[in-house]
Amino acid sequence: MTELGDYLRACRAKVSPEGAGLPSIGHRRVPGLRREELAMLAGVSVDYIVRLEQGRAKSASPDILRALAQALDLRPDEEEYLLRSAAGATNSPGSRAKKSPPGAQRVSTATRVLLDSLTGVPALVLGPRMDIIGWNALGAALFVDFDALAPQHRNHIRLAFLDDRVRSLYQDWEKVAKECVAFLRMDAGRYPEDPALAQLIGELSMKDADFRHWWSSHRVRAQRSGRKHFLHPTAGELSLHFQVLDVRGTQDQTLLIYTAEPNSRSAEALTFLSGWTQTNQKERAENTAVQLPGI
Question: Per residue in 154-163, pLDDT tens?
Answer without folding.
Answer: 999 999 999 9
